[in-house]
Amino acid sequence: MNEENNAAVNVKNQMNYTASEKKMIKKLFWRMMFLGFNMSYTRQQGVAWTWAHRPIYRTIYKDNDDKYWEAMKRNLEFFNTTPNMAGIVSGLAVSMEQENARLKEFDTKAISGLKIGLMGPMAGIGDTLFSGVLALVIGAIALSFQKTGNLLYLVFGLVGFAVNILVRWYGLKYGYKMGAKYIQKAVESGIMTMFTKASAIVGVTVVGGMIATLVKVPVVLKTKINGQTLDLQAIFDQIMPCLLPLLLSLGCFYFLRKGTSPVRVLLVVVVVGFLLTFAQITGTVS
Amino acid sequence: MLLLYQALVVAFIAAWGKFWGAYGSFAQFLGGFDIVILALLLGVNPVQAVIVNYTVALAFFGVMQIGGVLPQDTGYGGLIGTSIALILGQTGAVAVAIAVPISMLAVIIWNLLKFWFTANVEVFEKHVANRDEKRFTRLWWLQIAVYLGSYAIIAFLGILLGTNGIKALIDMIPPIFLKALVVAAGMLPAVGMAMLLKYVWNNSYIPYFIAGFALAAYLKLPIMGVTLFALVFGLIVFFLDQELRKVRVKAAPAGGLSDNDEEGFFDE
Questions:
Q1: Where do the TM regions start and end (chain B) (predicted)?
Q2: Which listed residue, A20, A273, B1, B101, has the most CB atoms within 10 A of its CB?
């Protein structure tokens, strides 16, 4: 454990940025906002990565035009991660490009290897954190305000927006200084996996709660049997509250897991909703 | 004349929404502002617009983009659906009825655009090989312009040519149909929830799923309350895992697991 602690101290000591480094990080921060544009099937964000880093490479390889164009060509390679998380990878990769400019014998495969090695774990954390937890929780709370037309619902998004900006900025800033070894170690040591797992658990719990609050299958069918009114919804509620929303969600989940396309599942749900309403089993509760 | 103005407004908001969707993924959290701007430009009360949009937002809730794969363009579909409902003074159910097919159609547009971007990768490579910075950047911005323009033009034409047809259609449909739409819209969040589950699922998470459901279904906790419990579960697991890792690292040398990855890492 000592080694890890020492590394943390070392990182802190290194965190001094020269004026030109600050300027570069700022520039990269703004240009990396474009990572989500112009995705292609073959390279995903590869072209956007190269476009975003172009002026940075220009500065790094200002004395060597050949190396500059080599970097441009090399970085067009496949790259794909959650755009919000790409700052860390970018910071690291840029520090390695600088090494490449400084040293004669530098294997650029290390830069590609780093990008390929990190984009997966970063997407794992990023998609879970942003789509699986933040957008989910913030969206659910915002929805409860939006329902009544309360414009305050817009404010909740600012929390997620702030996290997005902070991750982008500090990812880039620390990624640049921390060094590949340190981040690689963090990935290998399992801290990232632990974080992703904890986030996933938050997500699963909240989804469980949201199935009960957001999904609605209102049964209005009431039949008379032996003179007694049979309220179907009341019976379902007696078995378990929110029984039908749970079954419907689990049913969708089952088919999605089986590989049915989401669009088909959605269409089936719409058709089922229509059929049940036409049969007067479900309806709008007034 | 009015319809022309409305079509222009929706086209603008469509491109605006697409821009902020890609730029820094800002729309993921701030997309709601688009509806307010749309309402103000259309001269509709923003509160009413937000309520109409609520039904769409709910129906599409949880449908998300993973790894660049978009099952449905819920943002674009929702925007067009809400716009037409607002222009015609209709309810959220009508907005959903328009949003669902448009969201699927928009995926086709995206795939066509992405095909073009893919074909252009070769051109980008050629510009790099020729050391032509100017053409490289020009193609980059051209792609963005075409991307935003496509969605704007389709929204413009859709509103201009489609609104009257949709109005006639709405006047024609029987009330039971609208009722069914409301029911279907209420059931649709199940699809989003299932997609989220599929993404984060692991069989060992079943207890947390049940807990979350029970907290809301039986204890009637609002989502904020469920979230706090969720956070508690997540933190407990995180700290337990941390302890477990420490124990494993300590035990490794004594147990003689020389091929243990973690040991190799800490011995370095």
A1: 27-44, 51-70, 102-119, 139-164, 176-201, 221-240
A2: A273
